[in-house]
Every structure is written in C-alpha cells, then in structure tokens.
Amino acid sequence: MSATGQNHSNLGKVAVLMGGASAEREVSLMSGTGVLAALRSQGVDAHAFDPAERDLVELKREGFARCFIALHGRFGEDGTVQGALELLGIPYTGSGVMASSIAIDKIMTKRVWIAEGVPTPKYRLLAQGSIDRRQVIEVPDELGLPVIVKPAREGSSIGVNKVEGYSGMVEAVDAVLRLDSQVLCEAFIEGDEVTCPVLGTGDEAQALPVIRIVAPEGNYDYQNKYFTDTTQYLVPCGLPAGEEEAIQALVLKAYRVLGCRGWGRIDVMIDKATRKPYLLEINTSPGMTSHSLVPMSARAAGLSYEALCLRLLQAAALDNAPGAPQP
User: Fold this and answer.
1) Crossing angle for the helix pair 169-177 and 133-143, nearest 10 degrees?
2) CATH fold for domain 102-119+189-314
3) Which end of the chain is less crowded, N or C, counting CB atoms within 10 A of the terminal residue's CB?
4) Which residues bind Mg(2+) 2 (predicted)?
C-alpha cells in the first residue's frame, strides 16, 4: 500500500531495469533509483534489476510481470533489451524494437525525418574504414563552421565536440571513433536550445511543455547536464507567441513517424536569425534523475514525478501482443 493509500498490485511484480553496460551506466543508475523509489511510494511491487549483472532470463524465472526501462544508450535504448523482452513476453515501457533501434542511431533518425519533411540540420556521415584526412578536412567546406562532431549512437552528449576551425577536425573525429564506428558531422545551429517531451502513443500522444535550456557559454555537455547547477531550465520557456505550439506540433510529427510509443523527448535548436526549428535527436528512454527534463516538463503540466512513473509503467506493452497499441 502506498503513502496515499493506493494499491497497484494489479501491475504485478515489476523490474526497474537500470545500470546496464553502456557509457551512460552512471546516469542510468541515478534514473533507476529515482523510478524505483517513486513506484514503491505508489504501492508498486518494484525491484531493481541490472542487466549488466544478471541474465535477463531471470526476469521470467522470477515472475516479473512488466519492466520499467530506465536504461540509457546502447543495450538499453537501442532495441536489444526490447527484443529480449518481446521474446520473454514481458511488457515494457517506452518504444518497441524498431523505433528504439532507429532512434538510437542519429543518422537513421535523420534519414526518416528528412524523408517525412521534418527539418534537421545538414549533416555528413564519416564511417570508420572509409575515412581519409582529405574527407575530414573538407567537412567544414560543406557544412560551414563551427561544426558539431559526435558519435552516431551515443546519448547524454557523450563524445560531442564543437569544432571552431579546420585544425580541430581530425582530433574531433579521432575522439569520436574511440566511441563509435560512425561519426556524425552536423551543421551548427546558433540560437535557442529547447527540448520537448512526448507522452503516449499514436493519435493519443501529447507534447508536454517545451523547456528552454540556457547552459554556461552555451555548452550543454555531459557535466552540465547531470553534475552542475549552473544550467538554467526555463519552463514556461518564454519563446515568442506561437513558437512553443509550433515546436510541439513538429515534435509530435517527428515522434509519430518514427513509430515511437510510451514516451520520448526530442531536442531542438531554433535558428537565431530565421527562428526556424531544427530537430537534433530523439531520446526514447529519457533520463529520470533529479536534473532530468521530462519530469520537469511533466511537473509544469501538473504531473508529479511519482504520477509520471506510474503512468509510464501502466502503459507498458509489447509490440507483438494481441491488442498491442499501434504507434
């Protein structure tokens, strides 16, 4: 029984998947710890489960009825865990196998968005094994300076470099190749940085309030995301009239065309000169730490952290179960 007298035993035994083997393990443990406490406070029979330390088959053996995925990055947000849970027949939070595997890959996400008319910054892909110095040096000629250089399949701003001149390109690309075999070079958009969470599936999906991010010197990196208090998060976002609604509509379209379900968060840059929004990436298993943005936006919409966690868990589903919700 929860502190509010609610009993959610109908949800069964719940595993909060946290930790994992990705570069975002530390953040995932923070997210999972928060989610676990929130679900328990609501009367849910929730337990921590770290896939890096335990075999997923134990979920079935120990009678878990559903999973809250608080894993971030590879092996948790990329369709692999989702596929395993599909085979085990255990419903889980967030997007299914296909949407997760596309969304973790920024290149594939861009290709889908571009095909569907969703604006995203101009880019160039450099793939390990086919990169020569000439190609690297030519990137600024194509995209202009500064250039954002980052791994195609990492999150939490891990490995992201802002390159100001030609001389920094080779070093930035080499740094990314230590994390990923695919290097995404992206045109830098100067302007407001915002993010917009989405809850729900298909036509029922709704965009939450937009958050405007003001980071020290405009550098919203891993450290400033999770371990400092100097970054400002503005909600209400204070954007000009009509811009927030336009971004919410665009984000909903981008979420739906990827086939996402449950929840997600899309990061956006607004060009300072034209006020045109450009979508950067989507997170299908967003952070749930004390610094995280989905809980912040949900709170502005009147949804507490505990209520958010419970809502996400109640929406846990399988791609291939009879009557499963369709994105």
Assistant:
1) 110
2) D-amino Acid Aminotransferase; Chain A, domain 1 (3.30.470)
3) N
4) 281, 283
The reply to whether 156 belongs to the active site is yes
Residue in 31, 95, 101, 292 annotated catalytic: 292
> Is 304 a residue of the active site?
no
Q: In whole angstroms, give the CA distance from residue 53 to residue 50.
A: 6
283 is known to lie in a ligand binding site: yes
Residue identified by tokens 């009993």 is 7
Active site residue 24: yes
pLDDT digits (tens, 9 = 90+) for 169-221: 999 999 999 988 999 999 999 999 999 999 999 999 999 999 999 987 655 45
**Do the beta carbons of residue 313 and residue 12 sit within 8 Å?**
no
Q: What is the CA radius of gyration of the chain?
A: 20
Q: Taking each helix axis from N to C terminus, what angle separates 106-115 and 243-257, rounded to the nearest 10 degrees? A: 110
Backbone phi, then psi, for 284, in 5-degree steps?
A: -95, -5
The answer to whether 69 and 17 are in contact (CB under 8 A) is: yes
Sequence-distant (6+) residues with CB within 8 A of 7 are 1, 43
**Identified catalytic residue from 24, 86, 186, 244:** 24
The string of pLDDT tens digits covering residues 281-302 is 999 999 999 889 999 999 999 9
By the 8 A CB rule, do 144 and 188 touch?
Answer: yes
Count helices and strands (H / E) in the chain.
11, 13
Q: Looking at domain 123-187, which of 3.30.565.10, 3.40.50.150, 3.40.50.970, 3.30.1490.20 is its CATH number?
A: 3.30.1490.20
CA distance 226 to 128: 30
